[in-house]
Specification:
Elements lengths: L1 E2 L4 H7 L4 E6 L2 H17 L2 E8 L7 H9 L7 E7 L6 H17 L5 E7 L4 H4 L2 H9 E6 L7 H11 L2 E3 L2 H15 L3 H14 L3 E3 L1 H7 L8 H9 L3 H13 L4 H23 L4 H7 L4 H10 L5 H18 L11 H15 L21
Helix pairs in contact: 1-2, 3-4, 4-6, 7-8, 11-12, 12-17, 13-14, 13-16, 13-17, 16-17
Length: about 375
Amino acid sequence: MQIRPEQLEAQLARGLKPVYTVHGDEPLLAQEAADAIRAAARAAGYGERLVFTVSGAHFDWSAVIGAAQAQSLFADRQLIEIRIPSGKPGKEGSEALQRYCQLVTQTADDSVLTLVQLPGLDRQQQQSAWFGALDAAGQTLKLDPLGRPQLPGWLAQRLARQGQQVRQGEEGQRTLAFFADRVEGNLLAAHQEVQKLGLLHPAGELSYEQVEAAVLNVARFDVGKLAEALWTGQVTRALRVLDSLRQEGESVVMVHWMLADDIRALARGRAALDQGKPLPLALKEARVWGLKERLFERALPLLADHQLAHLLDAASLCDGLCKGLRHPDWPADPWEALQRLVLMALQALQPIRPREGRTAPAARLVLQP
């Protein structure tokens, strides 16, 4: 059974389940969840702890099965941790995990408690037989990355744990927004910055100036954050993420590929819409799923076909710039060219106003060596 992270503490207090499965790519949340389960196990008398890390296709699963069947030599109860960093146990591992779950759930006593740690899993992995066996045997905790909209509230909760809070009203919102901007994409560093505020200032109210002086700029971004900011029309954030990617040494080719791929998908979706197909079907035909589907649901209706044609031309031109070609009207630096492409997309996302007559097609852009 799957539970949310905020439900874990209450569930542990009601009684321990035979198996806990934690999966997600956020290190801080995964560490805190595992620590909470270990603490509850110690309090319940699980005095011995065995750790198995599955590395490679030749891992000896018989040792894991044997540990679940063997009587502990040092304690009446034992905690067994199974770590699968790749998230792929393989065929032998799949069969072993299903057998393992049968053993620990069919045992009359509660001498074994199991913690399984996994990275973020895709839909196919979550629908596999081995994951289904883990889920049926106990509690499953999915740890999704914390998005930018949720970050101010998360920071406020962390500050409250140490008896601190920002000021009420607009200043408090501005303080939390500033804090979130400085730590976005780096939750472990965000946690450390919150702890630093607890050391620097006593319990009580924090001013904007105190937070500004104390919090370092430790934000970390990936290309997905750029897409999120861009297709939701966040101008300042999109440019800040793009600049951060450049400073962090991200590949300009990879960033361009993501932008160009999004524009191509939007163009396919626009063509389907213009054929009279509903938005969900248009996105499906454009091969858009998951987070991008939610982003494009907002962006696609705002983009006309001529705008997307112009963006496709610009993306093609940027591709040449990234490969060393030049254009007299564009910056020679590929990152500056990407910034222009981003700004063009943001401008196109502004609500379309009715115009008289037909819009002339955008002039095509031509590269020069």
